[in-house]
Amino acid sequence: MEPSSVSFKNFGLGSPAAPLENPAISPEGTAEPAQLSDAEKEANRELVDRYADALYDASAEEILTWAHEHVAGKLVVTLSMENTVLAELASRYLPDSDFLFLDTGYHFPETLDVAQQVEQRYPQNLVRAKPLLTVGQQDARYGINLYSADPAACCRMRKVEPLAVSMAPYTGWITGLRRADSPLRATTPALDIDPNGRLKISPLVTWSLEDTDQYIEDKNLIVHPLTKAGYPSIGCAPCTAKVEAGQDPRSGRWAGFTKTECGLHT
Description:
Layout: E1 10-11, E2 15-16, H1 38-55, H2 60-70, E3 75-78, H3 85-93, E4 98-102, H4 109-121, E5 126-129, H5 135-142, H6 146-149, H7 151-166, E6 172-174, E7 191-193, E8 199-201, H8 209-218
Parallel strand pairs: 3-4, 3-6, 4-5, 6-8
Antiparallel strand pairs: 1-2, 7-8
Function: Catalyzes the formation of sulfite from adenosine 5'-phosphosulfate (APS) using thioredoxin as an electron donor.
Catalytic activity: [thioredoxin]-disulfide + sulfite + AMP + 2 H(+) = adenosine 5'-phosphosulfate + [thioredoxin]-dithiol
Protein name: Adenosine 5'-phosphosulfate reductase
């Protein structure tokens, strides 16, 4: 479905609203991605060139120990709150890192509850990155439920751009990417460089969903209740559906669309 190029609504005493804006254009005030210095980018590139191959199949503990020993700048651990494995590992191996949660405005209540529990359980600072527009403001500018008309634009404004701006204090980020999650992620490196020159470190790349579940049980971690109710991969509530047994764990994301990634990792 394409968003209407001319659409009016009546508010108040019947005054027509302005035409809906083009969702391909982010709202005025959207900040550019935070940039590193050329020297920082070069240092990161040298680390990737030197160590990426050696870390490709390393354990999560080895990868995070390497990061603690070799990365000079501050790192941030991105948490979707689908599980808290990264939070637990970072608390042990990257105690000086921050946590970051993309608070999109569309999360399940259970996801927000897990975020609150993470704040209570771990000493790391939890940064809540929020979009420039509230859900109501986005509806007014681009049409109600943009996620159903143009999910790529919705993800860009509510995930990709807030993350890029929030990365300013950090030289790199820790992700929860797993090669087993989908064919698109099958060759994900443990150590990479992102488009803005930051290190992108993925310590769980060799893990399966079963490995993740076992670690959660062994360490008595916070459990997102929806992962026990048919949701092995959890994003925003309107764009997350249950997954049948045996299906790709991410097949419930953006069901009905060809979209399989939010844009953070592509």
